[in-house]
Design goal:
Radius of gyration: 18 Å
Strand order of the largest sheet: 1-2-6-7-10-13-14-15
Oligomer: single chain
Distance between the termini: 33 Å
Mean pLDDT: 88
Shape: globular
Helix content: 25-40%
Number of strands: 15
Largest sheet: 8 strands, antiparallel
Strand content: 25-35%
Order of helices and strands: EEHHEHEEHEEEEEEEEHHEE
Amino acid sequence: MLRRAKPLLGTLVEVACEAADEGAALQASQAAFAAVLQVHRCMSRHEPGSDLGRLNAAAPGTWLAIDAQTVAVLAFALTLSRQTGGVFDVCASSSAQGSWRDLELDGGNRRVRRHAPVQADLGGIAKGHAVDQAVAALCAAGAACGWVNAGGDMRVFGALVLPLRVRAPWDLAQTLPCTHLRNQAAATSASYLLEAPALRHGITKKPVDASTSWTVVAPKCIAADALTKLVAASGDTRHPVLARHGARAWVYHDGPTRAAA
């Protein structure tokens, strides 16, 4: 098993894979890192030349050509916004000025525009998508099994089973057993990872508990990451949208309390 790590996406991205030999594993890991870098270039909100940076700077009503990957992530985000009735909102940080409804995506022509001065933030779901793309690159390069971990967004593939442990939000030196991953992805959001203004979630904008974490396991990492926001906002580990995406959820707060869908 070859394990390598690089700083990407504002975090440390670890790629682990097993292939026919060390050379093949090295080539596969390089392809995985290249896939992650491409997502960063397209969807980082901090890069003025990225698709997202250009969208957030464009005058309302202006169509912008975007990469096919950005189309895919925006399409997923808007679909999830519709499914959750706006509880998940890629424009939540600027909801006073508008919402996800102010984004118009023309996937067939790979373009997008906004109808109000909203600021889209793909953030975590772009990271989840990057993990999925890295796994796809590993498989295409012949890796038999392994995992990709990007700051808590991770996906395991092949004949490999990994135990998943999450950090206790009330004691960051402690980790808690959660589940086992096999050909699955997982993501965790936690109050200790959020800045103070971000401690309000969803359309209710209610404050969240200062010592809570939300973990979701799903077939794809993009879904796992996005759905942690739904569980955090709704407090519902059995929300019907979870089942639509083949996902399960756990909430940890104020002690070793486990709630699972």
